[in-house]
Amino acid sequence: MSDHHGTIFWTELATRDVAAAREYYAATCGWTYDEMTMQDGGTYVTAMKGEQMVCGIFDMSREPMMAELPPHWSTYIGVEDVDQVVAQAAKRGATVIRPAWDIPHVGRIAIIADPSGAPVGIMTPSE
């Protein structure tokens, strides 16, 4: 991860209509898709451009904490140690929106809002 510390590592679309999003981005960007089953039984879609992973797409209606949010894109910054970076960010005025949690085979993720209020994901990918 050291080569990627501080870089944009992942982005994903939270939507209530995954099928429509897939159709739109396939037609607009030429993406194809792979699917994987999430821990809660939902499906996580990985958009592909050729052999390269582009982003993720998931059904936000399965997430109660997103009930009041509009569909949106989220960005994740890759870091060496999520917990350390979140602690440093909080000392510098960030707000922890969702404390760090682990996603098997993906990594450790936290969601913070920077001092201006802009949310961003912080992520240490699995090895």
Automatic annotation (TrEMBL):
<dbReference type="InterPro" id="IPR029068">
    <property type="entry name" value="Glyas_Bleomycin-R_OHBP_Dase"/>
</dbReference>
<dbReference type="Pfam" id="PF00903">
    <property type="entry name" value="Glyoxalase"/>
</dbReference>
<dbReference type="InterPro" id="IPR037523">
    <property type="entry name" value="VOC_core"/>
</dbReference>
<dbReference type="InterPro" id="IPR004360">
    <property type="entry name" value="Glyas_Fos-R_dOase_dom"/>
</dbReference>
<dbReference type="InterPro" id="IPR052164">
    <property type="entry name" value="Anthracycline_SecMetBiosynth"/>
</dbReference>
<protein>
    <recommendedName>
        <fullName>VOC domain-containing protein</fullName>
    </recommendedName>
</protein>
<feature type="domain" description="VOC">
    <location>
        <begin position="7"/>
        <end position="125"/>
    </location>
</feature>
